[in-house]
Amino acid sequence: MTRIAVVEGDGIGHEVIPVARDVLALLHPEYEFFPVDVGYSRWEATGCPCADQDIAALKSADAILFGAITTPPMKDYQSVVLRIRKSLDLYANLRPIRGDGFDIMIVRENTEGLYSGIEESSPDRATTLRVVSRKGTGRIARMAIRLAKERDGLLTIGHKANVIKSDVFFRDICRTEAEAAGIAWNDKFIDALSLDLLQHPGNYHVVVTTNMFGDILSDVAAYLVGGLGLVPSANIGDEYALFEPVHGSAPDIAGQNTANPIAAVRSAAMLLEYLGDDLGAARIEAAIRSLVTRGICTRDLCGSYGTREFGDALLTELAKTP
Ligand code: NAD
Ligand code: IPM
Ligand code: MN
């Protein structure tokens, strides 16, 4: 029995995740889904955003479908998303950006860098330790190299080695791994890369970078495909995997039935690929494309469909295209 943990989270997570879940349930009626309630609203209600039992429940699943969690404006609050990524050692954050003439995979290191959590604040100074380890860099580099090989594509290393010593370290390890693997690679400073990616997306295949740069680059790259409502992600480790849209809880549009569920549905498609159902993933992508090219889409893509109405249209489309 395949068991999927479902975390709606907060905000539009409550709107987009039910659509993604319904799509999975349609393609795989044999899957068992179980909810895990973590996040800001859970914290408001109980004072605890995520307990040890919740982490255990997530670990018990074959895969996790995740919405988004609001970060409350509090100084000492520990991000639930980061806690889950670290507890499950989900070290690779894969963020595909696909459109006409380009097919890019952003491979974001997901456990260290500026997200080390090693921080100090005093009245006069605050510091965050940027950790780039040999182990952390080696494994993300090898993941990116594997993806570049699969696609027969170029590996681009994004860094700021002109300024930051830890990025000299990151670049050199990635370079050594790429040379050892015999793949084509180049490297670029992350600032120049960010603009060039928008201007010449066809020149990029797999981009590997550190945690915070990958966070920013993936939101920037969403511009190429019509915005955050479209970009999915996979958080992969050696034992566990979690699939979530790149976007957050979008409090500005939450509860309005206007959020685009495509990023969440595409995340569900990545979950299917992870579980070995490439055909199911391809069916989902084809159905999305068929709807969007006919103008069946949400407001962010200039359509008039609500989140749920688009979801229903997608289910109908999937049901008629086996
Ligand atoms: P956001 O991604 O939630 O929203 C940015 C903008 O994009 C907003 O204008 C929003 O309306 C729009 N948008 C996002 N998703 C959309 C969709 N599916 N359809 C249409 N429009 C969409 O980023 P933010 O506003 O900076 O953050 C809001 C909250 O989400 C914060 O608390 C942040 O910490 C959290 N967040 C959580 C995650 C996560 O849980 N994985 C990811 C990013 C942000
Ligand atoms: C993302 C988000 C998270 C991140 C936040 C909510 C912790 O922005 O998944 O892109 O910074 O990784
Ligand atoms: Mn982000």
Structure description:
A hairpin with a 2-residue loop joins strand 4 and strand 5 (102-109). The protein has 322 residues and is α/β, with parallel strands linked by helices. It is built from eleven helices and twelve strands. The radius of gyration is 19 Å and the shape is globular. The two termini are 23 Å apart. The chain has two domains: 1-90 and 237-322, 3-Layer(aba) Sandwich (Isopropylmalate Dehydrogenase), CATH 3.40.718.10; 91-236, Isopropylmalate Dehydrogenase. The mean pLDDT is 96. Helix 1 (13-27) packs across helix 9 and helix 5 (134-151) crosses helix 6 (165-181). The chain binds nicotinamide-adenine-dinucleotide, 3-isopropylmalic acid and manganese (II) ion. Nicotinamide-adenine-dinucleotide (NAD) binds at residues 12, 16, 68-71, 81, 228-229, 244, 247-253, 259-260, 263, 300.
Mind sketching the topology for me?
Blueprint: E1 3-9, H1 13-27, E2 32-35, H2 40-46, H3 52-59, E3 63-68, H4 80-87, E4 92-99, E5 102-109, E6 119-121, E7 126-128, H5 134-151, E8 155-159, H6 165-181, E9 185-189, H7 190-199, E10 206-209, H8 211-221, E11 232-236, E12 241-245, H9 262-274, H10 278-293, H11 307-320
Parallel strand pairs: 1-2, 1-3, 3-12, 5-10, 8-9, 8-10
Antiparallel strand pairs: 4-5, 4-11, 6-7, 11-12
